Amino acid sequence: MNRDRRRLRAACAGIVLLGLGLIAPRAQAAVCGTVLSPVSASATAVNFGVYDPASGNADQSSGTVTVSCGIPLDVLPSFTISLSRGQAASYAPRRMASGANTLSYNLYTDAARATVWGDGSAGTSTVTRSGTLLLGSVSLTVYGAVPTGQYVAPGSYADTITVTVSY
User: Fold this and answer.
1) Which of 67, 111, 116, 132 has the fewest Cβ atoms nearer than 10 Å?
2) CB 156 within 8 A of CB 131
3) Domain range for residue 80?
4) Is the dihedral of CA 114, 118, 123, 126 positive or negative?
């Protein structure tokens, strides 16, 4: 009887070892995909035109930020739009550049140009809109000003601002 048990154990061990030899090595496959955001933002340039530092008045202009929704969302209770500093280290003030030369300016949430439009830090404000945005768009005005009295080198000055929509 012991002999039969040993044979049975040996046969089982052989089957297990044979079975292990038949198992293919495991492989990994990458799985990826892209989820498109249902909400997007676009903006028109705030073009200050020709700047005259001796005019005595701030050079003012405006542009538009448009938030669009391309697919129906059941509920979008609110969304917040923030603007980056651009190439400046702070919001006070932002700076356009022409080579190594800079020209101070800022962007505002209001026509009085009293509230700096930023990311909510350093005394800036964001813009929040409540309500549902379904398959449509909302346009908001961005107000800009270049303070007078900045005697800078002639040239074309520019900055790039990132618009962020949080919902």
Assistant:
1) 111
2) no
3) 39-166
4) positive
Q: How far is 141 from 101, CA to CA, in rounded Å?
A: 28
Number of domain units in the chain: 1
Calculate the CA dihedral of residues 124, 125, 126, 131 and round it to 10 degrees.
Answer: 170
Q: Is residue 9 part of a domain?
A: no
Per residue in 93-118, pLDDT (tens digit) is 999 999 999 999 999 999 999 999 99
Report field, pTM of the whole predicted structure over 0.70: yes
Cα gap 159→165, rounded to integer Å: 20
120 by DSSP, 3-state: which?
coil
Number of Cβ atoms within 10 Å of the Cβ of 127: 18
